[in-house]
Amino acid sequence: MKTITQIVWILFFGVFSVNAQQEKGITGSNNWLNNWTEFKPNKVDYGQANQILAGNITVNTKLFKKNVYILQGSVFVTNNATLTIEPGTVIIGDYESSASLIITKGATIIAEGLETDPIVFTSNRSSRKAGDWGGIVILGDAPTNKFGNASSVNFDLDTSLTSYGGNNVSSNSGILKFVRIEFAGKKIKGLGNFNALLLAGVGNKTVLENIMISYAAGDSFEIYGGELTLNKLASFKSSSDDFKFNFGTQCRIDNSLAIRSSYLTSNLGSRCIDVASYDKKEEVDFTKKQTSVIATNLTLINNSENINVDIQSGLVKEAVYVSQNTSLDLKRTVISGFNPAVLLDNKIEINGENLKKIKFEQMYFNFCKGNIFTEHNSDNEDLENWYGNSAFSNVYSQSDNKETFIDLFNEKKPDFRLRIAKITASNDH
Length: 429
What we know:
It is built from four helices and 36 strands.
């Protein structure tokens, strides 16, 4: 593989302190993870449940902080009802009944926590583990790329209550803000796993920000179709994908974080970002919009204390996977500790037309064993030449994670913003 002529970039972020806002990766003059997140959820005592949530919720209902709720079985919010959850409320998913919460098409959830009082969905087991309960499903009537105007979620649920999709890009399924979802992703017999949070056909009036998902056995965030904006999301130690986009979603994601572990993987895929337009070509209508994702200021980390050893042992894979017939615009993003940083589907023909749909600009590739490759092809000269062009302002480094981020190993208040106000990086791989 031919190495591009070495270039050295020195990026000055101003004269502010190390805690000031950084240009690449997650941003903020303060660490926006403080107060509402939890990186050791198994150590938290959430108390005992004193209220039961079961069956269908057919009228407007409010849950209160003073109670601890146990979610039993599949709980559907139907009949255009609104489920409102007070800040600080804890909802515990029942292990034995494979608990899940489904907001059906036309219904609404208002789960608006506070930075100092987040809403928590977690497991009822004494020793909590990934996949203890199902997860949260939100179904809207925004478009997908499937044939017809509606599809159904195949999660072994009541199909009459799991339809999604339509023509309303501005549909409103409610608010999720300052919410934690822990230990979700229950195994579904013959169907893989629940996702911690599935957003299917969700429209752009829905507010989705400051959501943390921890220890999901399925995907943390999975998006089917719809048109939506995601902001300040965090996925922590998911076994499967952190952010998966499919079925024609038109999505913008900003200022968000994925922290992976080398030792948590799934045979269904374990990437920070997976962008696809379909599972099978025959499922979708190519006259409709295919999946398009604009992602800005993300931080994607393999949080390993010895990345080199993990890479050599085959425990680390790519951070980003891009399938055929999709569009991805990734900007000002940090990818640190992967093998390689990005893989493109081998069905994607490497030409100017296709590469204009797959953009990597102002990126910071750090401590990756290779940058951008086509799947099953070790010769990435064309891709290196394209994305290594100075017009894209991509930079490369081989710095240890401890040196790269402010305080990623702080057990209580980790800080995944870039540590230094000045980065020296090169493309000498």
